[in-house]
Structures are given as C-alpha cells and as structure tokens.
Amino acid sequence: METPFEIYPYSINKLIDIFSDKSISNPEFIQKNIHSIYFREYFEHLDTKTILAENDYIDRDYLEDFSSYYVRCFADYKRKCTRLHFFKHDFCVNDFEALLNESNPSLQKALQQNYLGFVVVKPLPKTIIGRTCLVPYPKESGKERKYPITREYKVNLFGLPLSVKSLAFQEQDNVVAACATSALWSVFHGTGILFHHDILSPGEITKTATKQLPIESRVFPNRGLSGEQMAYAIRSVNLEPLQIGINNKEYNIKSSIYAYISYGIPLILGLRLYDISGRTPNYIGRHAVAVTGYSIEDQTTKYENENLKLVSSNINKIYVHDDQVGPFSRMVFDNRFIKLHKNGTERDFISLATSFKTEGTGIGGVRAVPEILLVPLYHKIRISFDTIYATVKFFNEVIEQVNEEIPFLMNEKIEWDIYLTDVNKLKSEIFEAEKCTGNYFKKILLMNMPRYIWRAAAILKGTPVIDFLFDATDIEQGQYFICTIEYDKGFSSILKKIFSGDIFEEMLKNTTAWKIIRWLRDDSHTYREAGSK
Q: With a cut of 50, which residues of the chain have pLDDT below it?
C-alpha cells in the first residue's frame, strides 16, 4: 500500500525517477524530454534541496479531463495524481512526521519560507506534467525581472498551510488540449482573478473553443486551435479578444506586451517556429505561448523609433509559459533576423531565441518569428494601446520640432512610459509617493476618474516629470483625455512655453493633443510646490 507521502533529497535523477514511478512513462523518454532538461536548470537555479511527494492527490483540472475522455478508454487509467512539493532547505520524513504529530511553529515557518511550489504528475504515458505552480526566477544583479501577473496559490499539505506566488502552467495534453489550449488555460488563471471569471480546465477550453468546429473534425483528440477558436474561448469567459498584428518592428511587439502585461493581463503570443541548424531556415510549425513577464537589463541599448523613446524598448527578454519547455521560460530579443520568403520575395523577419528543442537540434537551434498577440480584455476597456501610442507620438513630435528651433528648452529627449492601469492603483501610488503632497495632489486624489486608465508618463533623467491620463473605457471619438499630473514645475513651464502660440489651436483643434494643450494652459491646473495652498 502506498504511503500518503514520501520525502527525498533533491537531484535531477531522483526527480526523473519520481516522474517515471508516479506516471506510466519510462525513464528514457522522460530523460530525453525537454521538460526534464528545463527542470534541471530551473531547480538548480532555485537551489532546491528537498522533494515531498503527496500521493493520491485529486487535481480538479485532470479530473475534468479524466471524466471527459480517459474514463471512457478501455485501458484502466488512474484518476488520482501525485503532487510534488519542492523546498530549498533540508528536512526528512521524521521531521515532517514530528510536525504532524505536534505543532512546531519554527518548522512550519521554515517550510513556508523555503517553499518553491509544486508540480502535479499525471498518471499518463507521455504528457505527465499537470498543474504546476513554481516561484519565478529570482532577481539578479543588473537585471530587472518583472512578473506582473503572478497570483497567490494556497496549498493545504495534510493540514499545513503553504502558499506560492506564481501563475499555473501545465504540459500540452495531446488528447484533450493543444499548445493554444495550454496557453489559454494559463492566461485564464491570470485574468480569472483580475476580471473575476471562471477558470476552465483544458478539456473545457477545448470543448468551448471548438463549438463551431467543421463536421469533418473531432474535438478529442485535439490537434490545435485556430486564432478564431482562441478568440471564441476568450469570449466564453466574458472577455473580449484584441488581436494585435506584429509589424516586424521590435518596438511594436515590446511596447504592446509591456502596455498590457504591466496591468497584470497575460497575453497569447502566436509564433512560427524555424529550425535554423541548416543553411536555410526550416519551418517547423505554428506555436502559441502565454506571455507572463519580461526582463530589463541595466545596459540594454535604448532604441529610439520614429523619434519616440519608450521605456518598453529596453526589454531584452520576455518570459513565457511554453507548454513544450516549461514555466517562465525565456525568449530573447537578440537583434537577430532570419531571411524568409513571403509573397514571392525574400525578407528579413524579427526572431527570438527560444529554449525550444526538436529531435534534430539542441536547445538554441529553434527560433520564433512573432505573428500575433491576442489580449483578453474586460469589455469596458475600449481604447487600445495603439490609440494612446499615436496620441503620445504626435504630441512628442510637436515638442521635438519646437525644441529643435529653441534648443535651450530641453537638452535631452523625453522617455515615455505607456501602460494600462486602474484608478485604485494610480491613486495608491500617488498617495504613497513622498513627493506627492500638498493641495495639488489632494485634488488629484479626490478627482472622479474612470475605472480603467491609460497612463503615459514623461521621464527626464530617470525621473517622471508629468503624467498624461486617458480614459480607457471611452470611445475613440469621445473625450478620452482626462488630465495631466505635474510633478516638476520647471518641466511644466517648458511645456507652457512650447504651446503658448495661437498657431496650435488652428493646427490641432479637434484632436486629443489640443485637449492636452488646453489643460496645460489652464492656470487652475498649474503645479504648486509641495505643501502650498
């Protein structure tokens, strides 16, 4: 009879043995599988010391898929899983049994402090990695890693409360799910908390997405979802899918990802994969991943595109839940293009380095060409990033043009930080900022604002000098500019000088830029020194 739990010192070989023992897969297959290669690096990086195997674990997502398909098979597949818990400190069976026998606050605290998360092992022959919640890669010197969409997962381990901040991941199940389904499942774990909707299992996502499936196709086994089917699945949880085409410019994909993920919205990134180990790129197929974070390095080159300098241009990596690799796996912007034939001509396409692996290549032999971003949005978020980007770009061009004629006004370019937020986050940041005091900022805190807001912060020498706020719930023909928040009196004065001429009213009237200018000219909105009346 299997014991309720087992405890082992961590090693990658022991983990592979456990994977094999708790599933019905063989060690040779698991050892060659890219997930094992990925987990080797991941757990070593996290300094993992101990594995606790929780046997006879009932996982809701697997149980839904089991009832949809596996229970009807002639083969006797098990309905219970094993949940593996990982810790970065050493303890043994006797230590844990002592904790169960008698409360030990110090040991309980140590377990929580050193808890790295869990992996559910499914009792299947191949796709064995079930619901996985592991802590992301930690911060490193010179690297700013951001994971805005992680949430707290509470764990009850035989009555012991534990928690891990993560975003759920699982391997593609070729029977009830494809890569797009796995990506959607991870995305829904983020949006479900943010926008308060049900989180579907992979099998439920596949059923929902394929309701309009052609008659010659089958729901199970599932070989993949189209963009239209992914959009249908997003609508099934009362969200609206926004599709963003990638225009082969780095800043387009970086700025779009940054704008939405900063608010905690995970995105689906559609890719074309190419094996580059030969003389010419060999097309492998389409793939979909869930974008879960990004990295900015201190020494990253600051790109300037169309005279608009963006914080998002400094992104050098994105982190994705790639069901064929692992959670928070890296995709790198390394300025490499690959030549592809399209519409009869050869063109250079932006590509990202991946951790993907095929039988014919090692890791690094496959590159990804981005095609689309799919953003799951709450239906009241109507104004898109492209609209705000165009407004800020136009406003910035006017400033640049005037500054060229009167160069003493500003001696460097403005850097723009453009992202989606909400009124509560915005006002909390203002309230907690030490420099945001006095009657001026009190008026901002008391101002009635919409729930969702686009925020475009102008930055000089690393310091925000002014914010432009836009109503994300309005329509493009509406009055979607809300107000500015001025942090620097000197910079506000420069803007007033730039836009003091009457020529701007005739040139810009009926545009959002003119609404911003009128706001800046109104003395009732003028910045006052902190603490002034």
A: 175-177, 215-223, 300-301, 527-533
Radius of gyration of the chain (CA): 26
Residue ranges per domain, the chain?
5-170, 243-378, 385-525
pLDDT in tens, 233-252: 999 999 999 999 887 677 78
For residue 151, which amino acid is it?
R
Cα distances (Å, whole numbers) of residue 262 to 69, 291, 361, 418, 425: 38, 11, 34, 9, 12
67/62 Cα distance (integer angstroms): 9
Phi, psi of 457 (to 5 degrees): -95, 130
Do the bridges between strand 304-305 and strand 337-342 make them parallel or antiparallel, or are there none, so unpaired?
A: unpaired
Q: What is d(CA 130, CA 343) in angstroms, rounded to the nearest whole number? A: 41
Q: Which two tokens stand for residue 513?
A: 């830029």
pLDDT of residue 203: 78
Q: Which residues contact 233 (CB under 8 A, 6 or more apart)?
A: 184, 200, 205, 208, 209, 225
- Tally of CB atoms within 10 A around 70: 22
Starting at the edge strand that comes first in sequence, how are the strands of the sheet with 415-422 ordered? 304-305, 308-310, 415-422, 452-460, 463-471, 481-486
Q: Which helix (H) or strand (E) holds 116?
A: strand 115-121
CA 379 → CA 144, 186, 355, 531, distances in Å?
32, 20, 35, 40
